[in-house]
Amino acid sequence: MVIALLLVSCKKENTSPKSETITSGSKWGISIGSSPQEVFAQLQQAGVQYNFNTVAILNRPVYTKPEQIKDLLPLYQSVILQSNASLPAGAYIQFPGDKVTAIVQFPSSNAQETKWPLDVPDDAAIHINDAVTSLYNKLAAIYQVSAYSNYQLVLPDKTLAKPYDTDMANYEEWAFSFSKDVKAGLTGTTSARLIFKNKKLVAIKYDYSENVLAI
Q1: How far lies 60's CA from each of 157, 171, 172, 197, 199, in Å?
Q2: Same domain, 165 and 119
Q3: CB atoms < 10 A from the CB of 88, how many?
């Protein structure tokens, strides 16, 4: 009971907020003037140092046909298939390596499945341990089923563990974040945006705040 009361009484307080825009030089090893491919390589190095492993590609549209992401799938670690509805239904497929490791169906169960969709033949469905190289053919088969032909495809954040995606250069804003312990009981959080113009990094915008756990 004492532990429970202590947990209830804890709250987070934000201190030392800071915002900055950098238009010259570098930050975290990410250099103004770099090309998108160079920035991606710099992010891979920064991710190791600051403990983050993805970058968001902002304003990327949803896709409507498997062929639109055929060449992109091996460069990512997950894909979302969802209905175009106010309350989307679908599945979140994860493949951090070269095989499918998790399938989460939503919204009915939000539980891990061994295959998806559940109502299509096994040879068309996506299964746990399917090779990433087989995903495109599975998606193409699923989209032949009328119930799924209008589903949307979403590529979540780009993993830094897989090679550069040349399509990233078509988007002018990327984002990432990371947290670091400043000292006991105090965590600093950085949220950054990378701004590109004419295929060059022109600005790094970031917000920094410190969160202290107070009892």
Answers
A1: 10, 7, 10, 16, 16
A2: no
A3: 15
Q: Which of 154, 176, 202 is the last residue of a domain?
A: 154
Residue identified by tokens 């590609």 is: 57
Please indicate, yes or no, if residue 26 is contained in any of the structural domains: yes
Burial of residue 145 (number of CB atoms within 10 Å: 0-12, 13-18, 19+): middle
Is there a domain that residue 6 lies in? Answer: no
Q: What is the pLDDT of residues 154-165, one digit of tens each?
A: 999 999 999 999
Residues 143 and 210 in one domain: no
Provide φ and ψ at 164, rounded to 5°. -60, 140
- Is the backbone of residue 98 left (phi > 0), alpha (psi -120 to 50) or beta? alpha
Q: Could you read off the pLDDT of 78-131 as tens digits, one per residue?
A: 999 999 888 889 999 999 999 999 999 998 766 789 999 999 999 999 999 999
DSSP 70-108: TTTGGG-SEEEEE-SSSS--EEEEE-SSSB--EEEEETT
Q: What pLDDT, on the 0 to 100 scale, is given for residue 32? A: 99
How far is it, in rounded angstroms, from Cα 117 to Cα 103?
10
Number of domains within the chain = 2
> What sign does the CA torsion over 189, 178, 31, 46 have?
positive
38: containing domain: 12-58+161-214
